[in-house]
What does this fold into?
Amino acid sequence: MSTSFSRVTVIGIGLIGGSLARALKNLPHAPEVRGIDVDPESLAWAVDNGVIDSAASPGSDAARLWLDAGGSDLVVIATPARFAAGWLSELGIAGFDGVVTDVASTKSGVLSAATSLLAQPTRFVGGHPMAGSERSGVTAARADLFAGAYWLLTPAADTDPDAYRAVHALVSAIGARVISVDAEAHDQAVAIVSHVPHVAAAALVDLASIHAGEGGELMRLAAGGFKDTTRIAAGSPELWTGICLDNADALAGGLAELRGVLRDFEVLVRSRDAVGITTWLSSAADVRRSLPAQWVPATSALTELVVPMDDRPGVVAAITSAVSRAGCNIEGIDIDHETEDRALLVLVLTDEGDLDRLSSDLERLGFETRFTPLAETGEDQ
It folds into this structure.
């Protein structure tokens, strides 16, 4: 699988930006990948090790050329969210007319900045790969970092359908699984499944440190379970400070909910309620065991969904969000423009999710649908 972008500029050659660059360079028809970063040593290492084809520092002639109108087909802002607005402003001032995406772990603020700053804001497609490592920097970048991982896309009501399709194809090409979700809903969700867990892990380390004693005796007793539970606490403090502040309201709300859950469990412990404790722990264990190690389809069967649509703002976002609500995953996406105002949205869906719910949801939204089972894919195809 390849991508329709032939010139990709990645801003921020760290773990995520570097891993994306590596993944793109591994594609059968790899695009030209350029890198922009404030750290000249990271850029030099990336070029020397084949992560990127060429490098430039911010403000250099090369960087200005790549970010100018016609300078790149795709620009990926792979910096922390707090730096995204500055780059979006630079792209807007330069009149950049290609597709823009990002990898920030919070989306509402970045989307708002893109809407107000870009020359062509409809060609911005917000993104968030749900992958990472306790390590940081380009030297930790891996081409397979996103394989089987979920990559959230947050199209707005007026997102250009062709821009969304192109970004979706790129993400799928590097092995990630796309979920389409509203930007605000995204921020609420990642607060619970990503940001609160990071703070909880850091809190456990802090608690152990308080009780460690001058000689650190307690820390020497920390076994594999404690280390596994708190691994993510080793992430970059600077990066996570920005994430906490960018998603402050949702994170604070999640922490309040966690405090309530712990308070309820504390009551069970203090009252020596063995049945209640067992029920509480069993419920958590059942949910945890149901989580897959990584995404794999139940079978190789695929279903084609064809949706006739008016070629107007918000249609693709509405349909792909409905797909995500039904728990379905999009293997491929295409837009067949029948007339200037009418098109067919063709989605290839993998075998998970509730197709009946998806059909009902789309009909409720006023869309006609046609589902067609496709031949099962074999390894030799």
Notes: The first helix runs from residue 15 to 25.
